[in-house]
């Protein structure tokens, strides 16, 4: 499947999902995903006051709104879905937003941002290397990229005969068909190995500062994460989320 087709499928999927008005799994700051401790614990954005922030896959702008309340001086967002951006503009009236695939630059200034954030979004990109090259170009000297995605090993786990099993090869990085929401709207995403993500960051000119594989919190409530993918037996076996902090 080519890059244009990937972009089109995901663009249509997210637009349909938002228009439906139905619940779907979504992560925004201060949360870093189901069963994860949040920003109040990790304090990754502790010095965001008076800083400029760009988010890739900004959805309805909830994370940017949160960072604005923490003192960010400018918040910018990119999202492939015009339906998401409508909400983002309403949620953050002073933000600057673009409807665009994250592997394209729709007019974002280079060497400008103190932080770039990708929260459960970059796997929907049609090109990891193109996207990370742009991330590096957007950041100013010493700017930081905060990356968050489903932990690649957790993605390999499943349940069979009431036991946790490896349902897919960790080495399989092929484009995967997925569904989102109650209506099971089709989309596609990549699930990369950790080494693939790190090596792509290094190639783009970023330096890995910290990697977080936190032990999940055992809680009953996981918001809109209702699918069996987040089975509590699986979360006892592996981190649910991978966070990488990289510096330009």
What would you note in describing this structure?
The chain is an alpha/beta fold. Helix content is 26%, strand content 26%. The protein has seven helices and eleven strands. The strands form three sheets. It has a seven-stranded mixed beta sheet with strand order 3-2-1-4-5-11-10, sandwiched between helices. The relative contact order is 0.18.
Secondary structure topology:
Layout: H1 3-20, H2 39-42, E1 52-56, H3 62-69, E2 74-79, H4 82-91, E3 96-99, E4 113-119, H5 128-138, E5 139-150, E6 157-160, E7 163-166, E8 176-180, E9 185-189, H6 194-203, E10 207-212, H7 232-235, E11 241-247
Parallel strand pairs: 1-2, 1-4, 2-3, 4-5
Antiparallel strand pairs: 5-11, 6-7, 8-9, 10-11
Helix pairs in contact: 5-6
Keywords summarizing the entry:
248 residues, alpha/beta, seven-stranded mixed sheet, two-stranded antiparallel sheet, 26% strand
Give me the side-by-side strand order of the main sheet: 3-2-1-4-5-11-10
- Report the major sheet: 7 strands, mixed
Class inferred from helices and paired strands: alpha/beta
Oligomer: single chain
SSE order in H/E notation? HHEHEHEEHEEEEEHEHE
The overall pLDDT, averaged over residues, is: 94
Mass-distribution shape: globular
- Into which percent range does the helicity of residues fall? 25-40%
List low-confidence stretches. Answer: none
Would you count the extended β strands for me? Answer: 11
- Any idea what the radius of gyration is? 17 Å
Terminal-residue CA separation: 32 Å
* Proportion of beta-strand residues: 25-35%
Separate helix tally: 7
């Amino acid at each position: 499947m080519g890059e244009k087709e990937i972009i089109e499928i995901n663009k249509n999927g997210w637009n349909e999902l938002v228009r439906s008005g139905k619940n779907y799994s979504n992560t925004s700051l201060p949360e870093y995903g189901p069963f994860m401790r949040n920003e109040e614990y990790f304090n990754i954005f502790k010095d965001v006051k008076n800083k400029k922030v760009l988010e890739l896959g900004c959805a309805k702008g909830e994370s940017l709104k949160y960072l604005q309340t923490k003192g960010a001086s400018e918040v910018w967002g990119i999202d492939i879905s015009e339906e998401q951006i409508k909400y983002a503009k309403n949620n953050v009236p002073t933000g600057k937003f673009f409807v665009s695939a994250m592997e394209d630059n729709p007019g974002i200034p280079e060497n400008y941002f103190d932080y770039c954030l990708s929260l459960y979004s970059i796997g929907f990109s049609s090109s990891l290397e193109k996207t990370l090259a742009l991330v590096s170009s957007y950041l100013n000297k010493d700017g930081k990229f905060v990356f968050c995605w489903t932990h690649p090993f957790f993605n390999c786990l499943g349940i069979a005969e009431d036991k946790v099993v490896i349902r897919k090869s960790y080495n399989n990085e092929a484009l995967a068909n997925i569904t989102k929401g109650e209506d099971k709207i089709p989309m596609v995403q990549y699930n990369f190995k950790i080494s693939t993500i790190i090596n792509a960051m290094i190639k783009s000119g970023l330096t890995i500062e910290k990697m977080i594989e936190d032990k999940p919190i055992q809680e009953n409530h996981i918001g809109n994460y209702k699918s069996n993918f987040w089975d509590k037996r699986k979360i006892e076996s592996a981190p649910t989320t991978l966070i990488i902090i990289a510096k330009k």
